[in-house]
Amino acid sequence: MGSQRCTVVVGCQWGDEGKGKVVDVLAESVDIVARYQGGANAGHTVHVGDEEFVLHQIPAGILHPQRRCLLGNGVVLDLEYFFEEYDALVRRGVDLEGRIGVSQRAHLLLPYHRLLDRVSEEDRAGGPIGTTGRGIGPAYEDKVGRRGIRVADLADRRRTSELLDGALERVDRQLRDGHLREPLERVRVRDQVLALRERILPLAVDTGLEIVEALACGRRVLLEGAQGTALDLDHGTYPFVTSSNTTAAAAATGVGIGPTFVDAVVGVVKAYTTRVGHGPLPTEFEAELGDRVRELGSEYGATTGRPRRCGWFDAVVARYAARVNGLTGLAVTKLDVLDTLPEIRIATAYRTGEERCTEFPANTTSLADVEPVYETLPGWLTPLGGARQLEELPPAARRYLARIEEATSAPIRMISVGTRREQVIFTKLQ
Ligand code: GDP
Ligand code: IMO
Ligand code: MG
Fold first, then answer.
1. In the predicted structure, residue 4 carries a pLDDT above the cut 90
2. Mean pLDDT, the chain, integer
3. Which of 14, 78, 144, 323 could hold 109 in an S-S bridge, CB 3.0 to 4.6 Å?
4. How does residue 205 score in pLDDT terms, banded at 50, 70 and 90?
5. The whole model's pTM is what?
6. Which residue in 268, 234, 238 sits closest to 250, CA to CA?
7. Mutation test of ligand 2: which of 81, 227, 309 has the most ligand atoms closer than 8 Å to its C-beta?
């Protein structure tokens, strides 16, 4: 954005803020887009003309010709789903030749991680997290446990084979202990990895090196986050989080560059709040309004199809996200979804009994019991989808945006008023 050369795009709520759309729009003026964490749990939707694309692992810059798209070392790479996504894009006419690079240091997510994810959800004391079932937790557990298999390990066929045999043996035991009702298809997994190995090796690169060299030549880079701040392993609503650091500081580590290479951090916030899966959501709507906004905003998971829980904009979360991500700017999405609401609320604090707090609490159990303190603003009751300039927005919409800006102390750089690429307003500041 603007004169910034290396920009992080990070979700500031519970995921699905519209990062895909924002990255696609910003990718117009960059050379490289790199994902820095997560895996196929992400679902980033991009609309180009009448076509809709949902990207799970391939960065959302891919729909601009010639942009180079990288998957950093912080990503867990699901080989099977990656090539499914790759082939589906090619079938839809997207030229990927020479455009995708995968970190040699990225850990592989293998089919058994998905089985382990299911077992761990079924057996979890205290009930399931409501994961996407994509094997994310178990893959990161293997990484942190120092028993993962990385892209670089695939270079040697014999070593790949040995590592796989060891992993399959261990997982088979683990799954039987976990009373899995479905056998691990060891031979199928082994054959599949050995076959896909041939396809992934030519894409393997040192993402940090490639990015630093590109920056040195004056090229521009976007680092694309997945999930959102409240799902961050350290800073989110633990344990109802994902298994990676989603926040901006992880972007540098996740692609292999130092933090001083990053020039700007754009936080993406939806004009209201959504969450998929379990865990506290302080501003969650009552059933009727929840159903209405879900329909207005088509709030169904891009990865799992699950209905998303919806609620009012939570300025406590947004302010927290501004701090933990060090935001230099905001992109506000889905403002148009609120077009028909006569009144719009923003939670500015939480109340527990007599106590009022304005900081996001670390204790997730207490978060489930807080009562949001709301400020009510008038709605604009005008369709915003056609607006392309800030001045074209009705005063009530501008007032709402000003409150969001004030609450986060981060300047709004971009406002999205529809799913299409052109449905965007850039503010003068950008
Ligand atoms: P991501 O995971 O953060 O990339 O977000 P998702 O793609 O999962 O969910 C965002 C949804 O909102 C997608 O269906 C987008 O097409 C849609 N979307 C993005 N921006 C806007 C907007 O400004 N208005 C409307 N109505 N929809 C939007
Ligand atoms: P994008 O990138 C919304 C949620 C799951 C679950 C929790 C843990 O599209 O914003 P996991 O499968 O990661 O172990 O699940 O995190 N979750 C997401 N919610 N958007 C996402 O990605 C998500 N990725 C994971 O619903 O509550
Ligand atoms: Mg999504």
1. no
2. 95
3. 78
4. very high
5. 0.97
6. 234
7. 227
Mutational test site, ligand 2, from 242, 298, 333, max ligand atoms within 8 Å of CB? 242
Ligand 2 pocket, Cβ-based, cut-off 6 angstroms: 11, 14-16, 41-44, 129-132, 134, 136-137, 226-228, 231, 242-243, 276-277, 302
**Long-range pairs, 354-361, Cβ under 8 A, ≥24:** 358/316, 358/319, 359/316, 359/320, 360/316, 360/317, 360/319, 360/320
Which residue's C-alpha comes closest to atom 7 of ligand 1? Answer: 45
131 CA to middle of ligand 2, Å? 6
For residue 180, the 8-state DSSP code is -
Dump pLDDT digits (tens) for 246-267. 999 999 999 999 999 999 999 9
d(CA 81, CA 61): 18
**213, amino acid identity:** E
Measured CA to CA in angstroms, residue 130 lies from 5, 76, 187 at distances of 37, 19, 30
Distance CA 130, CA 340 (A): 31
- Pairwise CA distance, residues 115 & 134, whole Å: 9
Residue 280 near residue 240 (C-beta atoms within 8 A): yes
Q: Catalytic: 16? A: yes
53, two tokens: 């694309």
pLDDT in tens, 170-183: 998 888 776 666 67
Query: Judging by beta carbons within 10 Å of its beta carbon (0-12, 13-18, 19+), is residue 146 exposed, middle or buried?
Result: exposed
Look at residues 285, 211, 215, 258 and name the one whose alpha carbon lies nearest to residue 35: 211
